[in-house]
Design a protein that fits this description.
The chain is mainly alpha-helical. The protein contains 6 helices and no strands. The mean pLDDT is 91.
């Protein structure tokens, strides 16, 4: 469902599959992606953070986590100082990992920090 862009179908499937999913971090990664795809950024963020705790150098998820924070900011939500510090850390890791969308991350950083 995720590759097809069907967020609600992915969420429904993932919630049913949770008890049988063999790899918790991979489950959390997919769930975060599904919530993000559905526009539920506040729910996706903690899941992305959880995944990044186990896989701190995954540039795709670093990008997603920063995107989630930026989208919340863009809709008028005020990010907490701890979230801004996490954004800064993620941006540094993303750059160290030579993430492909560094120009976007720099623009987000300028807007947030």
């Amino acid at each position: 469902f995720l590759p097809l862009g069907v967020a609600e179908g992915a969420l429904e499937f993932l919630k049913k599959a949770e008890p049988t999913f063999p790899d918790r971090p991979q489950y959390v990664r997919r769930l975060a992606q599904a919530y993000a795809l559905s526009g539920r950024y506040a729910e996706a963020g903690p899941l992305a953070d959880e995944y990044l705790g186990a896989h701190p150098d995954d540039t795709d998820m670093l990008f997603l986590a920063m995107h989630l924070m930026f989208e919340r900011h863009a809709t008028g939500e005020e990010l907490q100082p701890a979230e801004l510090a996490r954004f800064k850390d993620y941006a540094a890791r993303y750059e160290a990992g030579k993430g492909a969308q560094m120009l976007i991350v720099r623009a987000w950083s300028k807007a947030l920090l």
